[in-house]
């Protein structure tokens, strides 16, 4: 786990960054209230009230819900981002995307449909915790 210094007015606040390191495998859902950097493998839903950074070696097999995301790795599942999604040149995404804003770098692979802007926000479910029932489906 790492920390970043974040300035708010005259005070400095430490922002938590959660790291899922390369070589780490998680079979289940991940919920976080701060930034998450994924360099490992997750089979399950990822729900983050903040930014997700998926490194080129990172893989998510499941849904990704976050406020913002920079995707450099592989996502096999639906992506719902409230603000801005960046698909880096190394990204490989197989699944539908809903986001307010989208940036796709040359070289990124995207197989799916995309819904953007106000319509995406109207139709996108709000960030919510995945229920234990959904957790059981992921493990099956």
Largest sheet: number of strands, sense, barrel closure: 9 strands, mixed
- How many structural domains does the protein architecture include? 1
- As a percent range, the share of helical residues equals 10-25%
Tell me the fraction of residues in β-strands, as a range. over 45%
Shape: globular
Order of helices and strands: EEEEEEEEEEEEEEEHH
Oligomerization category of the chains in this entry: single chain
Ordered list of secondary-structure elements with their pairings:
Layout lengths: L1 E7 L2 E10 L4 E3 L2 E3 L2 E4 L2 E3 L2 E9 L4 E3 L2 E8 L2 E3 L2 E9 L4 E3 L2 E8 L4 E3 L2 E3 H7 L8 H8 L1
Supply the key terms.
globular; nine-stranded mixed sheet; mainly beta; 2 helices; 15 strands; 11% helix; six-stranded parallel sheet; 140 residues; disordered C terminus
Describe this structure in words.
With 140 residues, the chain is mainly beta. It has helices at residues 117-123, 132-139, and strands at 2-8, 11-20, 25-27, 30-32, 35-38, 41-43, 46-54, 59-61, 64-71, 74-76, 79-87, 92-94, 97-104, 109-111, 114-116. The chain has one domain. It has 2 helices and 15 strands. It is globular, with a radius of gyration of 15 Å.
């Amino acid at each position: 786990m790492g920390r970043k210094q974040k300035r708010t007015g005259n005070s400095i606040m430490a922002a938590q960054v959660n790291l899922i390191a390369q070589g780490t495998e998680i079979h289940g859902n991940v919920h976080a209230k701060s930034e998450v950097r994924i360099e490992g493998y997750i089979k399950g839903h990822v729900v983050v009230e903040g930014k997700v950074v998926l490194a080129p070696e990172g893989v998510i097999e499941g849904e990704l819900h976050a406020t913002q995301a920079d995707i450099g790795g592989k996502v096999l599942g639906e992506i719902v981002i409230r603000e801005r999604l960046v698909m880096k040149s190394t990204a490989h995404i197989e699944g539908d995307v809903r986001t307010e804003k989208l940036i796709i770098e040359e070289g990124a692979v995207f197989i799916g449909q995309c819904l953007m802007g106000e319509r995406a926000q109207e139709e996108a479910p709000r960030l919510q915790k995945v229920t234990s029932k959904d957790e059981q489906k992921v493990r099956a």
